[in-house]
Design brief:
The protein is built from 14 helices and 11 strands. With 427 residues, it is α+β, with helices and mostly antiparallel strands.
Length: 427
């Protein structure tokens, strides 16, 4: 185990160096901020809960407590106190670096004392910012981001990132370390969690709505059948034919309308596996012969073939219904060694208006007569269930682009960091 290899660990670069001095006070601050984030955000990742529980346990048994002058630890022979301090700092470094949210510690004048790997990716393009002035770096940041990071309270905030509105929760705690005022920030990416909660609410509404409407449609269909028979027996079939056909057509339309919403409510978890692109593209070509398709990538993807086919069918149909000539619809595709993939569905339709750009992937939103507003919403749910994302944009020379990214075998958190960076180091 790692704690039995003290000499080996001391010969390596000291990963805990930035944490020295404030460790005894940073532990409770980190725990308090993490707990506040869990309470405010309505939950938290298992990794964060485990990390906080681990710190709490180590603090309770004294491993992360500050050495007391003249206490038992200071009287140990052979440098035992030094080893205890080294272990304390390394455990704290491991815990802080394992938290799945962005953690930044800075001084009263803004000097950055510590940032964990998530914070370095989210704010500093992967670079170590220690020693830089955090407040100065915020000078060119978007107003909502600057106000949230410099505010005095915990809060939710949203920022435009490459045309997308991304949401975050920030927890803030102030404390002293060796009489120096320090501020600890924990920033949690919340966009996917908020969407997941929205979809859960929608799914419950759809289930109730489908149940009630289907309960009404069943007797309507039965009564319509009986009315047709009665009209035939009375020799009045032609007289009432138009009325019966209208009732039948509207009932069928209502069933079809509900099926789109029910598909979202019934969407199962994808069965992710290494899969070839050739069968998916062949099936798509059989359904849409005029679609311009790429050659299958040599590298396999990491996806549920059935669900990905449904996603692509939805996107192609959406392009046709938007008014693009079928021969102008094109699919671009690339795949990486880790199974991550990027797909772009391009068309030559009218593109998205400013309003549609903001709402296109929301359930129930549609600009097409008779549309259900579920095609892009269902496609986004499939993409996000694969740990990926779906974004819409307009092409510079006319038409729309639907971009789908699948995270492959890498973690969803890594994908979220890539798409949600709030860069502070680029001017």
């Amino acid at each position: 185990m790692w704690w039995s290899k003290g000499a080996e660990a001391r010969s390596k670069p000291d990963a805990a160096a930035p944490l020295r001095g404030w460790a005894p006070l940073a532990v409770p601050a980190l725990m308090a901020a993490g707990a506040a984030g869990l309470a405010s955000a309505g939950g938290g990742s298992a990794a964060l809960v485990a990390a906080l529980a681990f710190v709490s346990a180590l603090t309770g048994c004294g491993l992360l407590s500050a050495p007391r002058s003249g206490g038992p630890s200071s009287r140990r022979a052979g440098g035992a106190d030094e080893l205890g301090d080294d272990v304390r700092q390394r455990v704290l470094a491991v815990v802080a670096d394992s938290v799945p949210d962005a953690v930044v510690l800075f001084s009263d004048v803004g000097t950055i004392r510590y940032s964990n790997p998530v914070a370095r990716e989210l704010f500093f393009e992967g670079q170590n910012p220690e020693g830089q002035n955090f407040i100065r770096l915020l000078s060119d940041a978007a107003a909502p981001l600057r106000e949230a990071l410099l505010g005095e309270t915990d809060r939710f905030f949203s920022v435009q990132v490459e045309g997308r509105l991304e949401s975050y929760h920030l927890s803030r705690r102030n404390f002293l370390a060796d009489a120096e005022p320090l501020t600890l920030l924990i920033v949690k990416y919340m966009t996917r969690e908020i969407r997941r909660r929205e979809v859960e609410v929608l799914q419950r509404v759809v289930r109730v709505m489908s149940h009630e409407v289907n309960n009404s449609l069943a007797p309507i269909s039965s009564l319509l059948h009986s009315a047709r028979l009665m009209a035939n027996n009375l020799g009045q079939a032609e007289r009432f034919q138009r009325v019966f056909d209208t009732i039948d057509e509207r009932a069928s339309h209502l069933r079809t309308f509900l099926e789109g919403y029910a598909a979202l409510a019934r969407l199962p978890r994808p069965r992710l596996a290494e899969a070839s692109w050739a069968p998916v593209l062949a099936q798509l070509g059989a359904l849409f012969p005029e679609l311009r398709r790429p050659e299958p990538p040599e590298l396999p993807g990491w996806f549920d073939s059935g669900q990905l086919e449904q996603l692509l069918i939805n996107l192609v149909k959406n392009a046709h219904e938007a008014g693009s000539p079928p021969s102008a619809v094109e699919l671009e595709l690339s795949s990486q060694p880790d199974g991550s993939s990027e797909l772009c569905l391009l068309d030559r339709g009218p593109g998205f208006s400013a309003e549609a750009m903001q709402n296109a992937v929301l359930p129930l939103y549609t600009t097409k007569p008779g549309g259900s507003g579920m095609g892009l919403a269902l496609s986004r749910e499939i993409a996000e269930a694969h740990g990926g994302s779906l974004d819409v944009s307009n092409r510079k020379d006319g038409g729309a682009c639907i971009q789908v990214r699948l995270s492959g075998r890498k973690s969803r958190a890594a994908h979220d960091l890539t798409r949600s960076r709030l860069t502070l180091t680029r001017h």
